[in-house]
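Good day; I would like, with your permission, to put a structural problem before you. What I wish to show you is a protein chain and, alongside it, a tokenised description of its three-dimensional fold. Please examine both parts with care and let me know of anything in them that strikes you as inconsistent. Thank you for your consideration; the sequence and its tokens are set out here:

***
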Amino acid sequence: MLTAAAKEYGWELKLDEIASLWRAGCIIRAELLDDIMKAYATADGQPANLLLAPAFAESIAGALPAWRRVVSTAVQLGIPVPVFSASLAYYDGLRRRRLPAALTQGLRDLFGAHTYNRVDIDGTFHTLWGEDKSEIEAVDTH
């Protein structure tokens, strides 16, 4: 959120220094703050998301198989794990270049005929979901 605000308002934030401000708090472990500060202090640029910083990416990669097992087992047993499952879905979407936006466009078109764009050709399209499932070029009515 700080990165997005900095872009919008033209702020030059030093995220590594901002992370150090929470050191006196009790919610975030000091060890984790060190990793956050290191991720933002790298000379080769700041990560677009902390989950993509090397230290965090390696840690998550090691835990990912178990994370998936926990979520899938809970779902199979009917045990609600909303934070685990939503965060896993967020992580999976974060690692895909187009999936979240493409999926959202498809769902909006299915439920409200809002159309979608394709990456292979120019134009705006709509699928006749309730009919023969054919794709048609949408007419701009604006």
